[in-house]
Amino acid sequence: MKAHILCIVAASMLAGCSSYSFHTNLSPDNVAEYFTPSAVDVMDKDELLKYNSKALGSVSGLSCQADERDFIANEADARTDARIKAARIGANAIVFNKCVVVTDSPSCLKSVTCYGQAYIRGDKIR
Q1: Nearest-CA neighbor of 53 among 97, 95, 98, 114?
Q2: 16 versus 77: which is more confidently predicted?
Q3: pTM of the full predicted structure?
């Protein structure tokens, strides 16, 4: 009898949760975009010299704290933005030159901009 009541209670609980919907801010249309930075390896110039590579151009990434409620601008976000831009021009490697921090600009309380060179890294030189 107890097992029968337990089954009824469990079934009722499961049925009660069946109308629950899950919402996320992740868009299925942008899943590829979420993983774009991982397609671009961060390298230093000496490491890149071990490979056949071709420079594609300069890229920069920005992290901006527009107001006090926003996340604080940081180098990691600026580098990630630069890696996304490098991937968009077909790069698979990036060498960062420098990052610059600016406070109290007209559009950002704090901003971090990282500059780098995007490359297509080929086969390793023997």
Answers
A1: 95
A2: 77
A3: 0.74
